[in-house]
Amino acid sequence: MNEIKKPINRSRIRQLVGKEYFILKRKYHWLSSGKKWATTKGNSDFKNLVFEHSSMILRPLKDVDMYLQENKRKNLEIAISQINTVIIKPNETFSIWKLVGRPTKRKGYLEGLILSQGQIAKDTGGGLCQLGNLLFWIFAHSPLTVTERYRHGFDVFPDINRKVPFGAGATLSYNYIDLQVKNKTKNSFQVNLWLDKTHLNGTLTSKNKVNALYTVEERNHIFKQQYWGGYSRHNQIIQIEDLNGQQTEKLLVTNNAIMMYNPFLNE
């Protein structure tokens, strides 16, 4: 239980070829899946607040140049312009990459922070994982159903100033590592995103009032030393729906990650 194989370091060429293969595979899926995608943007008729959240944009990280954090702000600005006010109607699926498209220099994206095989790196459009993290946390507090979500296979940074449980987010990589939710309700929802001087902000609003209250809990959080010497981290993220005092629990995600720092040393 909670066993993780020792990571394989793949060559740069293998990574690039593999990435383009999965990008093409995902594009084919978009065309052939038959899903109804959420693409319509709307006005301010959605007055019922379901959940709201914000996360700090410029967060100093060990061994990370601050210019990459500054560039992240620009990357987020471009990406959220493609998502803000989108409506998720009944039976529609929301996909970050279906809305945002490929982040390229031509579109104005800058070099930002990414994680590659557990190591800090940089690439055009880096930093958009913050968008995935924020939206996952918002969707986790709603009746929308998370149908696709990934997290980094590595835990790179210690829990300094962490406001949400470990693993309560979603990593992104165009376009096959996506965050998708499906609206299986009869209600319609709207995603609202904006930046201020310090934070990325988001709300989920609904056309009709949502009667249930949604909370999220972390459970079964453990650290474990693997047979090959490294440490790993594991937990589960549980959604609790409270409807008129009747509670229903649902497992949202199970997280298993290789730690890139010693969990028993003070940072």
Tell me the total number of β-strands: 14
Q: How many separate helices?
A: 4
Global morphology: globular
Contiguous low-pLDDT stretches (5 residues minimum) are none
Helix content: 10-25%
Question: What's the arrangement of secondary structure elements?
Answer:
Blueprint: H1 12-32, E1 36-37, E2 48-56, H2 66-81, E3 87-88, E4 92-95, H3 96-100, E5 111-116, E6 119-124, H4 129-139, E7 145-148, E8 154-155, E9 180-182, E10 189-195, E11 199-206, E12 213-225, E13 231-243, E14 246-259
Parallel strand pairs: 1-4, 8-14
Antiparallel strand pairs: 2-11, 3-10, 4-9, 5-6, 7-9, 10-11, 12-13, 13-14
Labels describing this entry:
267 residues, alpha+beta, 4-stranded mixed β-sheet, 4-stranded antiparallel β-sheet, 4 helices, 20% helix, 35% strand
Description:
- The chain contains four helices and 14 strands.
- It is globular.
- The chain has helices at 12-32, 66-81, 96-100, 129-139, and strands at 36-37, 48-56, 87-88, 92-95, 111-116, 119-124, 145-148, 154-155, 180-182, 189-195, 199-206, 213-225, 231-243, 246-259.
- A hairpin with a 2-residue loop joins β5 (111-116) and β6.
- The mean pLDDT is 88.
- The chain has 267 residues and is α+β, with helices and mostly antiparallel strands.
